[in-house]
Specification:
Layout lengths: L7 H16 L5 H7 L4 H4 L1 H24 L1 H20 L4 H29 L2 H33 L3 H20 L14 H13 L2 H31 L7 H21 L9 H21 L5 H28 L6 H24 L7 H23 L2
Length: 393
């Protein structure tokens, strides 16, 4: 039976299913490079192009959902995601795979953008904060756990296995959303402006909200830190440190598991402390973890353990920061502009992630120094954005 207050598990699953495709194939990157006889940096374009396409597609999906409704746009997104996944699995060349990843990303963005928007539509107050924490945990756990699964699929089915799996997940989610999700977008008065004018007006309203901009920067820096590790982590762990590709996913749990811990701590503190202040605290802990990673590199400890301990600190800091930043950001805009706000936040996050993966992917990774520097920079930028746009009146 369709409902206008969909269960949180459905929204979390929609988010995870789209996030799976970001990183499930990471253990396969060296294999993809060898299979198509291309450089590792060229193979990594399958990640960077995905992130760029994901970013720009959100700018269409969010405002369209404000105008047409969440349900039809989400269903269309899932159809595109499933088709793109099938094309990836059947790709005969690296060029075809890159184009197929672009199609896959255009569909995948709907789960993330609309999942957040539907939470904002259907919940309020502490319930919205808790639900947004669950969504943020899903956004972290999806990319973190998927390389673990991807490593097993690589061993069993080759590099195509991860794409066959995402196609199956996309199809299952399409059926679930069709059966369960009702329309949650608030009813708006008839629009007198054209589609393009209304589209631009949505972003204009959102960009005027100074607090939204500061909170978006905080959330972007938290997600960017995660992507810095995902860009350099596979080559560092698998080729430099000698970790088996099938085991790479276990190392991502050091971050994701502590993200969940930080998110749970944040939920427990709701009503006891001002959760808005947890955002800079989390950003500070994230930066501290990055400094610790840089220190281990300088001291010559080039081991998986020297990477895992700082990752645990980073994950905990992100768990305090990201859920609260996303919830307060969407709460700071008018209800009929939530789709545009969620899209803009996702766009900025993905553009930052894409630029960072391009940069980090072509840097040498003989130690964890470059990853630590990248994460530290995101932490500092997040703190500056918080102080100038949110903390100051």
């Amino acid at each position: 039976m369709r409902t206008i207050k969909p269960p949180i598990w459905l929204l979390m699953t929609a988010t995870v299913s789209s996030q799976l495709a970001v990183t499930i194939f990471l253990p396969s990157l060296p294999t993809i490079a060898r299979s198509f006889d291309v450089a590792y940096g060229t193979a990594q374009l399958t990640l960077s192009v995905y992130l760029f396409a994901f970013a720009f597609a959100q700018l269409a999906v969010g405002p369209l959902s404000d105008r047409m409704g969440r349900r039809p746009v989400l269903l269309a997104s899932l159809v595109v995601f499933t088709i793109g996944s099938l094309c990836c699995a059947l790709s005969p060349t690296i060029e075809t795979l890159i184009v197929s990843r672009l199609i896959q990303a255009c569909g995948a963005c709907g789960g993330v953008v609309l999942g957040r928007a539907i939470v904002r539509d259907s919940r309020s107050g502490p319930e919205m904060m808790r639900s947004m924490g669950y969504m943020a945990s899903a956004m972290a756990l999806g990319p973190a756990l998927s390389p673990l699964l991807g490593g097993q699929l690589l061993g069993a089915f080759g590099w195509q296995g991860s794409f066959w799996f995402t196609a199956a997940v996309g199809l299952a989610m399409l059926v679930a959303v069709w059966l369960i999700l009702g329309e949650t977008a608030p009813k708006s008065p008839p629009r007198t402006t054209g589609i393009v004018r209304g589209y631009l007006d949505g972003f204009r309203v959102v960009l005027r909200e100074r607090r939204f901009m500061g909170l978006m920067i905080a959330a972007t820096c938290a997600s960017s830190a995660f992507n810095v590790f995902f860009a350099g982590g596979p080559i560092l762990l698998i080729q430099t440190m000698g970790v088996a590709a099938e085991l790479f996913g276990w190392f991502t749990l050091a971050w994701a598991g502590n993200f969940v811990v930080g998110s749970l701590v944040s939920s427990r503190l709701q009503g006891r402390v001002n959760s808005l202040t947890l955002i800079p605290v989390g950003q500070g802990i994230l930066t501290l973890g990055a400094v610790a990673m840089m220190a281990t590199a300088l001291l010559g400890f080039i081991t998986p353990l020297a990477l895992i301990v700082p990752l645990m600190l980073m994950g905990w800091g992100n768990g305090l920061n990201m859920p609260n930043a996303m919830a307060y950001a969407l709460a700071s805009v008018p209800a009929n502009r939530v789709g545009a706000a969620s899209a803009l936040m996702g766009f900025v996050q993905m553009i930052a992630a894409a630029l960072l993966t391009l940069l980090i992917g072509y840097l040498p990774h003989t130690t964890q120094w470059n990853i630590g520097v990248g994460v530290a920079l995101t932490g500092v930028v997040g703190l500056v954005g918080w102080w100038t746009l949110v903390r100051r009146p």
